[in-house]
Design brief:
Cytochrome p450, 3-stranded antiparallel β-sheet, alpha+beta
Length: about 400
């Protein structure tokens, strides 16, 4: 295993500030597989080659997603343990357990009414826009993308806002690795409260569908299925929306074109999913035994983390233009690919379109002129998205 000094730190502010520079440097030094630290003293291998990622993600027999052989040697206070540890979910299991969880979660998502979801996003977006449109300035993350995604997930899961708020706070702690274990406990307690509520008062929501699925999930299994929706539906969904808004507001090829109609919001979303996916490094697997990939021996039971951001920008596959191309790895690939891609697209597209329609003359207003990114080995997340615009009258809900 490489020495500690040879490993690249994914938890440093320098990495968060310019990961693409780091990926290019990694590629020049190491090739497709890079020795990294996910946290101090937590080594892993980061996959930055597209073909190597496909090989690994399409081979769950040799590269299982179950982290239990690894985590038994990890101290309980490790900041990345709560987000990586085993859970009774499809993303952390293989074989029959994977099939059982995956079938339940997919069935719950498949029954979401997409037309109604469009209306839900609009009903949430317009009051949020009205809360700042007359001021002439806003932080779009604090005042728009975060509260919007939070309320949309609450609606999908049938969750009262006071329960959802505790989950959102816990999820942020998990992703950033700050008081992560406290965040883990907060999530579990809040989700158990939601499950208990839905057992007594079922509704037309994903939580109730999971409870009545033939998989017969027990309370703890339910807690983890629902918590997974919050992890992806708030933290990573808001990052997708915010990163796309940043692109539209700062890139000449998008700003005028999206607003003028020659490029669509979906084009901007797909470019972000290539370049700055909200979950940049994850899809962790743990080889059952040492295995040789691209002339590098991967040790048994140690994390092999796929960098979706780096793989998407691998010069071996990256074309000059990717408009309309969805061959990126932002959603994962293989049996563990994200089952909620269609939901994410609908929510993000509608959230962005509502905002651009209402405030088409927004301009970024970063202190010092450059965005600040939140540190963390896994996500690509803006610390804020301040904008200015001509004050506008409030909108009417249809």
């Amino acid at each position: 295993m490489p020495s500690e000094s040879a490993r690249v730190s994914l938890h440093s502010p320098a990495f968060a500030a310019d990961p693409h520079h780091c990926y290019r440097d990694m590629r020049a030094r190491y090739g497709s597989l890079v020795p990294v630290d996910l946290a101090p003293g937590v080594p892993a291998t980061l996959v930055i080659g597209y073909s190597a990622a496909l090989r690994i993600l399409n081979d769950p027999e040799r590269f299982p997603a179950d982290p239990r052989p690894w985590q038994k040697d990890i101290p309980s206070d490790c900041p990345v343990l709560p987000i990586m540890q085993w859970r009774p979910t499809a993303s952390r299991n293989d074989g029959t357990d994977f099939q059982r969880y995956r079938q339940a979660i997919t069935a719950g998502i498949r029954q979401v009414d997409m037309h109604a979801l469009h209306g839900t996003v609009e009903q949430i977006a317009i009051p949020l826009i009205n809360s700042f449109c007359e001021a002439g300035s806003a932080d779009l993350i604090a005042q728009y993308t975060y509260p919007l995604t939070f309320q949309v997930v609450n609606a999908l899961l049938g969750c009262p806002s006071q329960i959802g708020q505790r989950v959102a706070t816990g999820m942020a702690a998990l992703v950033e690795g700050v008081e992560a274990e406290r965040g883990n406990t907060m999530i579990s307690e809040a989700m158990l409260e939601l499950v208990t509520l839905k057992q007594a008062e079922p509704g037309n929501d994903i939580t109730s569908r999971l409870l009545h699925h033939p998989a017969k999930l027990d309370d703890q299994e339910m807690v983890h299925q629902v918590a997974g929706h919050y992890g992806a539906g708030i933290e990573f969904q808001q990052n997708l929306i915010a990163n796309t808004l940043l692109l539209i507001l700062t890139a000449d090829r998008f700003g005028g074109n999206v607003l003028g109609g020659s490029l669509s919001t979906l084009d901007a979303l797909d470019e972000v999913l290539f370049d700055d996916p909200p979950l940049a490094n994850f899809l962790s697997t743990y080889p059952r035994r040492p295995i040789l990939v691209d002339n590098v021996w991967l040790p048994a039971n140690q994390p092999v983390v796929v960098s979706m951001a780096a793989c998407n920008n691998d010069p071996a596959i990256r074309a000059a233009g990717n408009q309309g191309n969805r061959s990126h790895l932002a959603w994962g690939i293989g049996q563990h690919a994200c089952p909620a891609q269609s939901l994410a697209y609908v929510i993000a597209q509608n959230a962005i379109d509502q905002l651009l329609d209402a405030l088409p003359e927004m301009e970024p207003a970063f202190t010092g002129g450059t965005p600040v990114w939140r540190p963390g080995p896994f996500h690509r997340a803006l610390a804020g998205l301040p904008v200015t615009f001509p004050p506008s009258a409030t909108l009417n809900l249809q």
